[in-house]
Predict the 3D structure of the following.
Amino acid sequence: MLETYLKVLDLDYFEVTEAFKGLADENVWKRPAAGLLSVGELAGHIAYWESIRFAGEGRDLAKCKVQGPLIDERFAYYPTTLVTQPSKDHLALGSEQVCRELLRVHEETVAHLRTLNPALESVVPGWSPHWTYDESLKYTTFHVAYHTGQMYSVRHLLGEETPDN
């Protein structure tokens, strides 16, 4: 069953790569309107939660086995992200770099999960009893797809042409 979830996640990440196709570097970190996040911030949000949920122990970033520029507390929660600006390190990442980094985080997190090979009914370390691996994987497949759809919307609001989605 773990492999079935991971196949669905891989399909989500196929669509993520489509959402990045043709994205102008100057639009990666641009918010299309007040109250909306940029494509880069959405990518950071996806990377943050997948890595800490499946390669960490709760929200302690120091214990997360996968690290990188997108795994940043500022991307954890919409209100926190909204009141902060991307760092200079984030702004230095163009479209291709953000997409590659998001894919790297996903691949390393999945590799860690496969090595761990947890019982799906077991609780993810550092999370409440509701967050079993089964529930976490189900939610993560939805979470990635939802925010990928937002990436397309951001691009449309910025006036970009997107791949047929």
